[in-house]
Design a protein that fits this description.
11 helices; 2 domains; Cytochrome Bc1 Complex, Chain D, domain 2; two-stranded antiparallel sheet; two-stranded antiparallel ribbon
Length: 396
Amino acid sequence: MSKKNFILKSSISGLLLVFLMVIFASNNKIETYEALPKLNSNCPPGFKKNVNNECIAQNLYMQYNSSNNKGVGGLQTGLPKIRDGFSPQEIDLGRYLFFDPILSGDGTMSCASCHDPSKGFSDGQKTSTGNNKQKLKRAAPSLWNVAYLKNLFWDGRATTLEEQMQEPLFSKIEMNNSPENLVQIINSIEEYRNMFTEAYPKKDENSFIELNEIYKALAAFQSSLISLNSKYDRYAHGYHEALNKNEIEGMNVFRSFVARCAECHTPPLFTNQQFAVIGSPEPNGLPLDPGAQIPFNDSTLRGAFKVPSLRNIEKTAPYMHSGNFATLRETVEFYTKGRGHAVPKNENLIIHWHIWEPELSDYELDRLVDFLKSLTDETFTPKIPETLPSGLNPSV
């Protein structure tokens, strides 16, 4: 046989083999799911899986009781109850959904667009940008340790993550989707159907993905965002060399009855989860944001906002509900300029009694900033998916 005929016959044989493999795969319905990313069966760091395939939070603060708190801002204080018990598969499914812009009406925004891991799960803007680049009224709050929080949004109008997430998902000025379109588009993606079956094994593989399952998976992922291993935490647990001289001085100012920072930003979450009227100015002469007055229908809460956690505060500039302060130094200085000094003349706000005139020096303010930076801990930052079931690029 000539070399030319041998090559020709080999090529034909090769093509025939490929053709037969295609026919075989078609007739026997060979699935390709194994080549796709599988959901993680291990719990994220900071959680331990129990016999029921539930991820249960584990941290050193669990050894403390809040009754052991010694003075304002005591170091060894227990945490409030966390929302945990999700399966590792639910958490990982939520991770894919969180970064997927398919959740928005036009496929351009994901949850991570306003809650970017590199920006402390905020977005680095004074106020967030929504659908069609519309500027929103308030800044995006951080999601670190959100599983411990009782009220969500700056004005506390939601009490669960499932309730909270529906507003940005379906708001015309935010992600601009609809419940009907969201379930339709997720159900149209074969890989998501496979993932939901894996995360919720009681589901039939052909059953419809429901809205509450989408909400629950997103809540599971957000509840896994734990930040409790900063320099401050190592100091609080007994390693006193974790903080340097300036940071310790700043901590002492923070805890003092002069500055009174710790009375609202109570360790270890660095929030007391209450609402406070502090008289923070609105930017560019905008009218006063009524805050919690609206959802609670309470005039005493006019201008009140939820006391935010200071965890990873170094990463979430600019600051306040309106992003009015560009730096931490500007922010801490606001509290020493006098009670109600920025309240509009036509407003009679009931300023929180902790807001007064501590008259802190420049040195003390600088040390406060040093201490606040010691609260940075991004050890458990989750990995952004390299690919998404929707085929879109992960959006941050």
